[in-house]
């Protein structure tokens, strides 16, 4: 099955400032990842692309710079989680009422048919939950909106690391265009 994406030619004043900054994935480069049946081969190589696409890593970064960034971001993620876990009882009640209640309801319904999230007491579901709760602490102005779990789930299933997934999700949220903070109807449109 073939598909085509047509992009209109727009004047530079109407395009995103980063338009044309990065090399596009061409058809031949994509086809190099497929076997004769059209199935993705060497899936692990494609998994490594997500942190670049979601701007966790810079395209110009070296492997040493990426590893240093990863260690720094892992520490930052741990600090965000610690901030969440050390809330006062009053802060925790407000957080539970405004964020955690909805997250807890959503994560148990997200992608349950996907093998990665299937089953009772699945650690991947708990990891998704922590990512979303920590994101609400990291970015309280946005907090959590129903549907964010649907954005985190495929990233977690591909990246396979909680901290890396969190920062990829941060990149996704920073580079997603919302007219205002994401509300339920905004998430559905996106």
TrEMBL record:
Q: Name one Pfam family in it.
A: RabGAP-TBC
Q: Is Ribonucleoprotein one of the keywords UniProt gives this record?
A: no
- What this protein is called in its record is TBC1D16 isoform 7
Where is each Rab-GAP TBC domain found? Answer: 40-190
Q: Is Lipid metabolism there in the keyword field?
A: no
Q: Listed GO cellular component terms?
A: early endosome
**GO MF annotation terms:** GTPase activator activity
Which species is listed as the source?
Pongo abelii (Sumatran orangutan)
> Any idea which UniProt keywords this protein has?
GTPase activation
Reading the lineage from the top rank, the first entry is Eukaryota
């Amino acid at each position: 099955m073939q598909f085509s994406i047509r992009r209109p030619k727009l004047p530079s004043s109407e395009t995103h400032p980063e338009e044309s900054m990065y090399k596009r994935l061409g058809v031949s480069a994509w086809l190099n990842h497929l076997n004769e049946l059209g199935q993705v081969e060497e899936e692990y190589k494609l998994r490594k692309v997500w942190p670049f696409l979601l701007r966790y890593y810079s395209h110009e970064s070296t492997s040493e710079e990426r590893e240093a960034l990863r260690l720094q971001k892992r520490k930052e993620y741990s600090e965000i989680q610690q901030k969440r876990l050390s809330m006062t009882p009053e802060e925790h009640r407000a957080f539970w009422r405004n964020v955690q209640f909805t997250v807890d309801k959503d994560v148990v319904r997200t992608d349950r048919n996907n093998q990665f999230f299937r089953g009772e007491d699945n650690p991947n579901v708990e990891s998704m939950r922590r990512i979303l709760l920590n994101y609400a602490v990291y970015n309280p102005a946005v907090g959590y909106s129903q549907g964010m779990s649907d954005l985190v789930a495929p990233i977690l299933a591909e990246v396979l690391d909680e901290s890396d997934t969190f920062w990829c999700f941060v990149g996704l949220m920073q580079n997603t265009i919302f007219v205002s903070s994401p509300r339920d109807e905004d998430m559905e449109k996106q």
